[in-house]
Design a protein that fits this description.
The chain contains eleven helices and eight strands. By secondary structure, it is α+β, with helices and mostly antiparallel strands. It has two domains: 55 residues, Orthogonal Bundle (3-methyladenine DNA Glycosylase II, Chain A, domain 3); 183 residues, Alpha-Beta Plaits. The longest helix is centred in the N-terminal third of the chain and has 27 residues.
Length: 281
């Protein structure tokens, strides 16, 4: 009889707890907006974090809740933004794909004061040591950015990373990997974009001592395009908010005495030739 009573008590407790769990489920249930799943379905599922969120699911939730822009997915680009906007029934704002550019164009032959380095072959480690080259602003050339790219869109050529824009998704992993913050994502309003390929803030005379192609802060670019260029701390910057791509930007390249103002993107024949030569070695 004791066993029977025990079984009845256990069965009763089971029913009680099941009932309590059922009530708790209903009381504590949080209904998810069905649009979150629909937005998630049109995202590329890269989970790269380039949008600023932990993954595509978090981004989808943020978009639906109004905490993120419909065009915030760098991998999906404009076509993805249109699909997300269609799910939410909103109008998509004109957006451009954000792609990385390198604010250094000094290859090995352009650098003065290179010092043999036998330590860990990593930009992070070499940057901590700080003795691999005279320029303390330039690319260290060990390829941490290349290693961070899951899309094979970066390659080291003559000590400098080169972006393959056909493969690049704009996820931003390379931006985070560079210890000297030389990589920046900019809005590609045109297939090729003008970039200041330097990050050195030293006076022009000091820059020339460490690099053949460093910006000397001469303001030649600013005199040509005052609304586009600014020179701060001896270094030229481009205001991409004012950038249309319709300007005669070849003039800025031609007038730069240091050769630090360059185009990134397509076409880039000089880099294609170099990559082809590297592949045959």
């Amino acid at each position: 009889m004791t066993l029977i009573y025990a079984a009845i008590v256990l069965f009763g407790l089971t029913l009680l707890f099941a009932g309590l769990l059922g009530i708790a489920k209903e009381k504590l249930r949080v209904d998810e907006d069905p649009r979150i799943g629909k937005v998630l379905d049109v995202l590329p599922a890269a989970n790269c974090g380039g949008c600023g969120f932990a993954g595509c699911a978090d981004f989808a939730k943020a978009v639906v809740e109004g905490r993120a822009d419909v065009g915030g997915c760098p991998v999906g680009g404009p076509s993805c933004a249109e699909k997300v906007a269609a799910v939410l029934g909103v109008e998509v704002v004109k957006t451009w794909p954000y792609r990385p550019v390198i604010h250094c164009r000094a290859r090995r032959e352009d650098k003065h004061g290179l010092v043999p380095y036998e330590g860990v072959q990593s930009c992070v480690e070499a940057n901590a040591v700080g003795v691999t080259q005279a320029c303390t602003y330039g690319c260290l050339g060990f390829g941490d950015c290349v290693a961070s790219c899951e899309y094979d869109a970066l390659h080291m050529v003559e000590g400098l990373p080169v972006v393959d824009y056909d493969k690049c998704t704009g996820c931003g992993a390379c931006v985070k990997a560079c210890p000297r913050n030389l990589i920046e994502r900019i809005p590609f309003k045109k297939e090729r974009m003008l970039v200041v390929g330097c990050s050195n803030h030293e006076p022009g005379k000091s820059v020339k001592q460490v690099c053949k192609v460093g910006c000397i802060g001469c303001k030649a670019c600013q005199r040509l395009f005052a609304n586009l260029f600014d020179v701060k701390d001896n270094l030229a910057y481009i205001n991409y908010d004012n950038y249309t791509g319709e300007e005669e930007l070849d003039k800025a390249v031609e007038k730069c005495p240091a050769g630090s103002v360059v185009f990134f993107g397509q076409p880039k024949p000089q880099y294609e030739e170099i990559l082809a030569e590297e592949a045959t070695k």
